[in-house]
Write a structure and sequence with these properties.
This protein has helices at residues 15-22, 26-40, 84-96, 113-127, 144-151, 176-188, 205-216, 246-259, 271-284, 304-314, and strands at 45-55, 101-106, 132-136, 155-157, 192-194, 197-199, 224-229, 264-267, 289-291, 295-296, 299-300, 317-318. By secondary structure, the chain is α/β, with parallel strands linked by helices. Strands 1, 2, 3, 4, 5, 6, 7, 8, 9 and 12 form a 10-stranded parallel β-sheet that branches. The protein is globular.
Length: 328
């Protein structure tokens, strides 16, 4: 396997090259993705993360897929920021269930300075449990990434969501470049990047290829790449669209693995709807990370028993972190 302590030289991908991968016969694509995957990772190891909503609802942004936007009538109640002890208790439970990374998400356009101190304390306390830490707080202002780094933050999640040319059809209250600016601040602060997207929002395969191309051409590439399948939340603008073909989802995972060989490719939102067979194909295609726990912010996720049963059927195990193996 590749030594991940050393930088991996990444090629620059063209849109035509990524589209050509998508167009391969399905078996050929999966074979190539699995071959790449085995060059870098244990093919039977899966990194487990848990995601907790630390501040739910009331977001000012108009993301067309999001249940937490104040602009959409989804029946979601606005909640205050959780207190630190509640977050630490949830992190302890996640660790006991086998998660090695604890992710905290807040429904903000971006954190206010008065809230960032509380989030930094959460990061310090979760880090003290021996877990990796991740937050997703929206867009950052200058200096905020450095505060999070000082608190011990390992990863910052900020997805591109979709390709630049389709972005305005999904979100209008901020731009694609705003997201890139936050990612640059995170990198400059020395924090690892967790960045992926959502597919199934009515975009074409060309748009999906464009998203993967943009992710693969980030320099350096994201350490974690969440691949989300749109969850159709009633009350959101995207609730009525056509369902994504599950094989197209698997193709996207495979193309992400080939173009980002050293990244963890994570099955994120929408895993509940995929079912066991499609998830198994995704692991064959190079996915090697999942969110565990029965909720992903506000949407359903497979329960722990279901994940344990699936891992047992497939012979998968938790990925060791700092010499410790998590349960699988």
């Amino acid at each position: 396997m590749t030594d991940l302590s050393q930088p991996v030289a990444a090629k620059t991908w063209s849109l035509a090259e990524v589209e050509a991968l998508y167009a391969l016969p399905f078996n050929d694509l999966l074979f190539q993705a699995q071959t790449v995957h085995r060059q870098t990772f244990d093919p039977n190891a899966v990194q487990l993360s848990t995601l907790l909503s630390i501040k739910t609802g009331g977001c000012s942004e108009d993301c067309g897929y999001c249940s937490q936007s104040a602009r959409h009538d989804t029946g979601l109640e606005r909640e205050k920021l959780l207190d630190v002890p509640a977050v630490v208790a949830a992190a302890k439970a996640a660790k006991e269930a086998g998660a090695t990374r604890f992710c905290m998400g807040a429904a903000w356009r971006g954190p206010k300075d008065k809230d960032l101190g509380a989030v930094a304390e959460m990061v310090r306390e979760v880090k003290a449990l021996g877990m990796e830490t991740c937050v997703t707080l929206g867009m950052l202002k200058p200096g905020q990434a450095e505060q999070l780094k000082d608190a011990g933050l390992d990863y910052y999640n900020h997805n591109l969501d979709t390709a630049a040319e389709f972005y305005g059809q999904v979100i209008t209250t901020h731009t694609h470049n705003d997201r890139l600016d936050t990612l640059a601040q995170v990198r400059d602060a020395g924090i690892h990047v967790c960045c992926g997207g959502i597919i199934g929002m009515g975009e074409s395969r060309r748009i999906r290829a464009g998203l993967v191309m943009e992710l693969a051409n980030l320099n350096p590439q994201p350490e974690s790449v969440p691949i989300n399948r749109l969850v159709k939340v009633p009350g959101t603008p995207m609730a009525q669209g056509e369902d994504l073909d599950p094989f197209e989802f698997v193709r996207t995972v495979a193309v992400a693995r080939i173009t980002m060989p050293a990244s963890h490719v994570r099955l994120s939102a929408g895993r509940q709807e995929l079912g066991e067979a499609v998830q198994a194909l995704c692991f064959l295609a190079g996915a090697n990370s999942v969110f565990c726990g029965d909720r992903l912010l506000t949407t359903r996720n497979p329960e722990a028993d279901a994940d344990s049963a699936l891992f047992s059927k497939l012979g998968l195990h938790g990925e060791p972190v700092q010499g410790r193996r998590c349960a699988g």
